[in-house]
Amino acid sequence: MTELIVIPTTMTRLKNGWKRPLASLSKMGHDRMSNDEVLAAEINSRKNEDPAKNVLQWMIDVGHGVLSTLSVKNEINAFPLCSVVPFAINHDGKPYILIASIAAHTKNLIKDQRSSLFISHPNPEGDPQSYWRACLIGKFKEVTVGDDDSAHSDAVVIVTAEQQEAMLTRYKAQVPNADAYLKTHNFSFWSMDEIISIRYIAGFGKICWIDGDEYLSATVQPSLDEVKSGSIEHMNDDHVDAMVDIYNAHFTKKSTIVHMDDLDSRGIFLQCMESNHQVYIPYGKTITSDELRVSIIDLVKQARIIAQQ
């Protein structure tokens, strides 16, 4: 067994020479850290950083995570069950997944919506604990289509048919064949409608809890409503060629007429008029109204680079 030697500073050292800050040892957790160490980790995590914005960017970057639900299987009742799931992010920042009714995690969520979604650095080298990870804790609710999208309940999230179609379009940016799942395997969307808290670890010594309301705030999830209609009209009137370039760079079936249907703080919705095919093209980050023009120009530049390859 490797011997652990505690040095009377802020470091620990193993006999093999590997070392890292004592206050940030992930294996200790907050339960074994002193109040001063917990406070230091909290302050350090927010120094020149916005943890909630970081979590959102990490979610954009990875697009999949580990879903944990509470098992209903008799032999392991109420034990956590984990599974890998792709996810998309709705306009309000809430992640949602597409899962089958026969799946174990779906049966678990029907019985108990309490769950978590864990994301982590996709390509860690060496010690994975030295890289970022986050765990969103809340409740996943099934998404159903209804006439009143504001009539949420403790059991379901009610959306309009148009909103569900937008969810599917966003999700297909992660899983292109999602249409087939919905048609043949009795899949449905589930949204983390309640985000209670987020466990944030950005590396050694950068640890804190993020309140769900902080993550869902307008500061982290900006609205582009004030510029949306004018921007869409401008693109459709004056820049069809740019949208054609964006669309054709991402899809093998080419188009000559493309219409912008919608946009949000994370991407644009384009419609191929010849095939009635709607797509969602992400910016790769969350933007504000002031950044919209540059972000669309960047999409055009990227598309034209792809076309030349």
Can you count the helices?
9
Give the count of structural domains: 2
Query: What fraction, in percent, of the residue positions are helical?
Result: 25-40%
Largest sheet: 9 strands, mixed
What share of residues are in beta strands?
A: 25-35%
Distance between the termini: 54 Å
Class of secondary structure makeup: alpha+beta
Could you state the order of secondary-structure elements as H and E?
A: EEEHHEEEEHEEEHHEEHHHEEEH
Q: Tally of extended strands?
A: 15
Tell me the radius of gyration: 22 Å
What general outline do the C-alpha atoms trace?
globular
Q: What CATH first level of the largest domain would be assigned?
A: Mainly Beta
Short overview:
The chain is α+β, with helices and mostly antiparallel strands and 309 residues long.
Features:
Pnp Oxidase, Chain A, 309 residues, Split barrel-like, 2 domains, nine-stranded mixed sheet, 9 helices, 31% helix, alpha+beta
